[in-house]
Amino acid sequence: MDQDSLKLKVARAALDIVQPGLESGTVLGIGTGSTANMFIDLLGEVAHLFDGAVASSEASAERLKSHNIPVYDLNAVDRISVYVDGADECNEALQLIKGGGAALTREKIVAAVAKEFICIADESKWVPVLGAFPLPVEVIPMARSHVAREIVKLGGDPILREGVVTDNGNVILDVYNFSIAQPLAMEARINGIVGVVCNGLFALRPADRLLLGTADGVRDLRRPASSLDS
Ligand SMILES: O=C(CO)[C@H](O)[C@H](O)COP(=O)(O)O
Questions:
Q1: Active site residues
Q2: What is the per-residue pLDDT across 85-101, written as a single tens digit (0 to 9) for each?
Q3: For residue 131, what are the CA distances in angstroms to 14, 48, 135, 176?
Q4: Where does the record place the catalytic residues (predicted)?
Q5: Greater pLDDT, 79 or 226
């Protein structure tokens, strides 16, 4: 089965989980990327059942609106019941690398607010150790060189993502050759570099549930009680 078919399967599986809870007053959190787009398109079929969504990017907001799903500013919302989003990598603790679509900061904010975070991904995203996918780091433009030097000290190879400006007006450094054995510690460490807005490690707030599309069907994985960091 090809990758897009697996993405569609997990998007459908997420809707099957979310739909019974949709009612007047429900506001969902919606992620960014091709898998999240498939979920948005399916959600359009049940738009009449719930109030609307908070989007993690301008692109997702536009797609939601194209399905007549109202989009709310996060500051106008008390509660997000479920956040549904894809990932670039995931491990068995349901820690993630995200930000391939440059939306990591808003994704992390919406995930932090949501009661439950359901990650939807095809099996190509499953890894034993995070870091084969270059780690996105959103950076204030004037701090780009400083942050890059600090990341080199941590052992990574940062490369500016050419031609990309985030929805927040910042730039992205993609960090290659990072083998992230301790995601919690690494997330905090990178956040501590002055000029970093956010990094794409989701270890402090991992997914609660991962729907992983495989050739044998959709695996429904729950976050284990403890993390893998020692
Ligand atoms: O983090 C993201 C965007 O910033 C996406 O969730 C991630 O890049 C996965 O994208 P796709 O579903 O297209 O494979």
A1: 107
A2: 999 999 999 999 999 99
A3: 26, 40, 7, 8
A4: 107 (proton acceptor)
A5: 79
Give the CATH architecture of domain 3-127+204-222: 3-Layer(aba) Sandwich (3.40)
Q: What token pair was written down for 61?
A: 């907001």
Residues 105-136 have pLDDT tens digits of: 999 999 999 999 999 999 999 999 999 999 99
Residues of the chain with CATH 3.40.50.1360: 3-127+204-222
For domain 135-200, is the CATH number 3.90.226.10? no
214 marked as part of a ligand binding site: no
Q: Which residues line ligand 1 (CB under 6 A)?
A: 31-35, 85-88, 98-104, 107
Residue nearest to atom 3 of ligand 1 (CA): 101
Structure tokens, 215: 């050739």
State the pTM of this model.
0.96
